[in-house]
Design brief:
This protein is α/β, with parallel strands linked by helices and 458 residues long. The protein has 20 helices and seven strands. It is elongated.
Length: 458
C-alpha cells in the first residue's frame, strides 16, 4: 500500500481484472475519502479548466516529465491529483510533507531518486504544504528540478509567488485549482453512494441520502470534497445506529461535531436571519447580533453581503450619533475582501460589536427621506439668485452672485442669508437626537440656526 492508502500494484492489477475497483473487504478500514480517490484523470471531480485534451495535468498523468505547483484551498484535489499520477505512471512515487521533512530528508530522497534513475526508473516527488519549506529546503530541490532528476508535484494553500523562491517557481508550471462547486461535491456524494468502493450499509446495501440531508451536507462541506466524504461516512454510521438505511438530517447532526445549521442562502432563512441580525443590532443586543453573524457564517453566507448590510445599518440606524462606526464598517468590508474567511469573521465581529454598542439615531435617515419626499412632490423653486454660478461670461448681467455673503468673512464662519428656494425657506429636515455625538450636534445646530435667523422654523 502506498502513502496515499492505495493498494499495491498487484492488488490494483487484480482489481482492474475484476472491473477496476476494490471491494469493501479489500479496502479494509480505509476512510471513505481515501477509498473514493480517483484512479484516473477522468474520475477527477472539478478543475475542468485544467483537464482538457493536452492539458498539463493530462500530460503529467501520461508520464511526461515536468514539475508543477498546485495552488488552491483545502479539499479541492491537490493530493488527489498526485495520487492519480502515482497510479498512472510507472515511475517511483515518493511523498514528503512540508511540515515534518527537513533538509536531511529531502537530500535522502533525492539521493535515492538518483540511484533509481541510474537503474532506469524515474521518481515523482510529491511535496505537500510546500510553503512550509524554508529557503534552504527549497534550494536543495532546485537543481533536482532543473536537471529533471525528479518530477516535482508541490501542493500549497498559499500563493507560491510569496512562499516559494523565484528560481524554483520559474522552472515549474503553476496550476491554480479552484474551489469545488456544489454540483461537483454533489456528484462526488452520488458516486460515493453508488460506487463499489463507496459507503455500504452493514448488510452490504446502498444508503439513501435524504434531500434535506444532502442540502445540509453540501452546505457544511463548503466546497471541500474531503470534508463532504468524511461527514457522509460518519452520517452513515449514525444512520446504522438508528437502524435506518436512509441518511437523514437527524443522522447527519449526530455525525458532525456541530448541529446542522438550518440556513438557506436562497430561501426564507436567508431573509429571516439577516432581518433578525439587523433588528438585533438596531436594538443594541450585541449577543444576538453575534449569534446571527455566527449562524450566517456557518450557513455559508457570503461575508461581503454581511459587510454591506453593516455599512447600510451604520448609516441608517447610527448615523451621526457615532459617525466613526461607519468608518469601522467600511474598513471591515475592505478587510473581508482582502483576507477572506476564516480570518474575516473577526473583522465582521468587530463591526457587529461597534454597531450594537453604539448610540443609535435615524435622524439622518429621516432627514434625507423628508428632503426626497419634497423633491418628489415638486417642491423646490429656482435656486436663489445670489447662490447661482457667477463664474461664466454673462452671469453678472443676469445678477448671479449679487448679494452673496462669503461665510468666512463673518463671525463663527456663518453667513446669515437665504440658502433654500423660496417655497422651502422655512423647512427643517435634520432633527438630531440627544444620543451620543448628536447631543453635541444638537447644541451646535441650534446655535447655527440662531445665527441664520431660522430658530423655531418648521
Amino acid at each position: 500500500m502506498d502513502l496515499f492508502g492505495n493498494p499495491d500494484p498487484a492488488e490494483a492489477t487484480t482489481a482492474a481484472s475484476l472491473g477496476g475497483s476494490l471491494s469493501s473487504a479489500q479496502h479494509g478500514d480505509l476512510p471513505l475519502a481515501v477509498r473514493m480517490r480517483p484512479r484516473t484523470v477522468d474520475e477527477i471531480v472539478g478543475q475542468q479548466h485544467l483537464l482538457g485534451p493536452g492539458s498539463p495535468l493530462r500530460r503529467l498523468a501520461m508520464g511526461q516529465p515536468m514539475s508543477v505547483f498546485l495552488w488552491g484551498p483545502p479539499g479541492v484535489g491537490k493530493t488527489t491529483i498526485a495520487a492519480v499520477v502515482s497510479r498512472t505512471t510507472s515511475r517511483r512515487f515518493v511523498e514528503l510533507s512540508g511540515v515534518t521533512a527537513g533538509v536531511r530528508e529531502v537530500r535522502a530522497e533525492l539521493d535515492a531518486a538518483r540511484r533509481e534513475l541510474a537503474r532506469g526508473t524515474g521518481t515523482v516527488l510529491f511535496v505537500d504544504e510546500v510553503h512550509r519549506f524554508n529557503k534552504a529546503q527549497q534550494d536543495v530541490l532546485l537543481p533536482a528540478v532543473e536537471n529533471r532528476l525528479v518530477t516535482l508535484i508541490a501542493a500549497t494553500t498559499e500563493n507560491p509567488s510569496f512562499s516559494v523562491i523565484s528560481p524554483l517557481l520559474s522552472r515549474s508550471l503553476l496550476l491554480t485549482l479552484t474551489p469545488l462547486t456544489d454540483g461537483d461535491v454533489d456528484a462526488l456524494l452520488t458516486r460515493a453512494l453508488t460506487d463499489d468502493r463507496g459507503l455500504r450499509t452493514p448488510d452490504g446495501g446502498n444508503y439513501a441520502l435524504d434531500p434535506d440531508a444532502r442540502g445540509t451536507l453540501l452546505r457544511l462541506a463548503g466546497g471541500d470534497a474531503r470534508r463532504a466524504l468524511t461527514y457522509l461516512e460518519e452520517a452513515g454510521a449514525s444512520a446504522s445506529a438508528l437502524g435506518s438505511p436512509t441518511i437523514t438530517s437527524e443522522a447527519l447532526e449526530l455525525a458532525v461535531d456541530k448541529a446542522a445549521v438550518r440556513y438557506d442562502r436562497d430561501g426564507d432563512q436567508h431573509y429571516d436571519v439577516i432581518s433578525a441580525f439587523i433588528k438585533s443590532i438596531r436594538g443594541s443586543d450585541v449577543d444576538a447580533g453575534l449569534h446571527y453573524l455566527a449562524r450566517m457564517l456557518a450557513g455559508g453566507e457570503d461575508p461581503r453581503f454581511i459587510a454591506r448590510r453593516l455599512i447600510v445599518l451604520a448609516s441608517e440606524d447610527i448615523g451621526m450619533a457615532a459617525p466613526s462606526v461607519l468608518q469601522t464598517c467600511v474598513a471591515a468590508a475592505q478587510a473581508v475582501q482582502f483576507v477572506g474567511l476564516p480570518e474575516g469573521r473577526l473583522t465582521l465581529a468587530h463591526a457587529v460589536v461597534a454597531c450594537a454598542t453604539a448610540p443609535k439615531s435615524n435622524a439622518v435617515t429621516a432627514a434625507i427621506g423628508k428632503a426626497q419626499s419634497d423633491v418628489a412632490a415638486g417642491k423646490g423653486g429656482p435656486v436663489p439668485v445670489h447662490l447661482r454660478d457667477a463664474h461664466y461670461a454673462g452671469a453678472k448681467a443676469l445678477g448671479h452672485g449679487t448679494g452673496y455673503l462669503y461665510a468666512h468673512d463673518h463671525p463663527h464662519g456663518v453667513a446669515a442669508q437665504q440658502y433654500l428656494p423660496d417655497d422651502l425657506a422655512d423647512v427643517r429636515y435634520y432633527e438630531p437626537t440627544g444620543h451620543g455625538h448628536e447631543a453635541a450636534i444638537t447644541e451646535r445646530l441650534d446655535a447655527i440656526r440662531g445665527l441664520l435667523g431660522r430658530v423655531g422654523e418648521v
